[in-house]
Amino acid sequence: MKNSTYEVKKSDEYLTKAKEVIPGGIFGHYKYAIRDTGPKFFSRSEGAYFWDLDDNRYVDLMCGYGPSILGYNHPEVEEAFKLSSDKGNTVSLASPVMVDLATELVDMVDIADWALFGKNGGDATSLAVMIAREHTGKKKIIKIDDGYHGVAPWMQDKSRPGIISSDNEHVLKIKWNDSEALEELLDKYGNDIACFISSPYDHPVSRDNSLPEDGY
Ligand SMILES: Cc1ncc(COP(=O)(O)O)c(C=O)c1O
């Protein structure tokens, strides 16, 4: 398929191949980057750029959806990765660098007494909700409508495939920037609310981002 700017033939061929062995071909966050006429797969990356399978070069303003803030193949990051991986990859005991990183994080973040590591954001948000429920002995969670916190069943919409009503029966939703709605829920369910989970600014998948209004 031809793009007005780039040829993406190899990407398209790979997507056809992918659909035979992977549901939808490309899933998760990557699927939102797919455009009929755009690139689907990368071939290499360096600094602020990646190249697609057809060797077109792009500036990656997404920074790999967050983690690549120093750019791809940054020499210091690659060196540290190599040093660590040479010692062993996924060994059956914890690595001491875990303690070093936790110490650094606890020193760096004023409100943090402890650090706990997960393999992704959804692990962290699910753990946060479990900790809040255990600590308060309460069930209900307030979240922002369309606010995204991972793929665990508690945060999926009732209409999603495989979700049953008990998965999220204690999840209450309010609109972003709506302090009144928050206060109403606190009045109504205050004795049973374990936590309010929200990003510091609203960044839903399919709408524009918005900042908190003054006083929110
Ligand atoms: C605010 C927030 N929480 C949780 C997640 C889930 O992270 P992950 O996809 O790494 O599980 C995301 C991912 O975009 C997020 O933006």
3D structure, described in words:
By secondary structure, this protein is an alpha/beta fold. It has three domains: 1-73, Aspartate Aminotransferase, domain 1; 75-108; 121-197. The chain has five helices and six strands; from the N terminus they run αβββαααββαβ. A three-stranded antiparallel β-sheet has the order 1-2-3, with no helix packed on it. Strand 2 and strand 3 form a beta hairpin. The protein is globular and about 60 Å long. The N and C termini lie far apart (47 Å). The relative contact order is 0.08. The structure holds pyridoxal-5'-phosphate.
Please give the structural blueprint.
Elements: H1 9-21, E1 42-46, E2 49-52, E3 57-59, H2 75-87, H3 96-108, H4 121-136, E4 140-144, E5 171-174, H5 179-189, E6 193-197
Parallel strand pairs: 4-5, 4-6
Antiparallel strand pairs: 1-2, 2-3
Pyridoxal-5'-phosphate is lined by residues 120-122, 125, 148-150, 199.
Features:
216 residues; alpha/beta; Aspartate Aminotransferase, domain 1; 3-stranded antiparallel beta sheet; 3-stranded parallel beta sheet; globular; binds pyridoxal-5'-phosphate
C-alpha termini separation:
47 Å
Number of strands: 6
Element order, helices and strands?
HEEEHHHEEHE
Estimated helix fraction: 25-40%
For the biggest sheet, the summary is: 3 strands, antiparallel
Which stretches are poorly predicted, pLDDT < 50 over at least 5 residues? none
**Strand fraction band?**
5-15%
Catalogue the ligands: pyridoxal-5'-phosphate
Spatial arrangement of strands, main beta sheet: 1-2-3
Outline of the structure:
The protein is an alpha/beta fold and 216 residues long. The chain is 31% helix and 12% strand. The protein has helices spanning 9-21, 75-87, 96-108, 121-136, 179-189; strands at residues 42-46, 49-52, 57-59, 140-144, 171-174, 193-197.
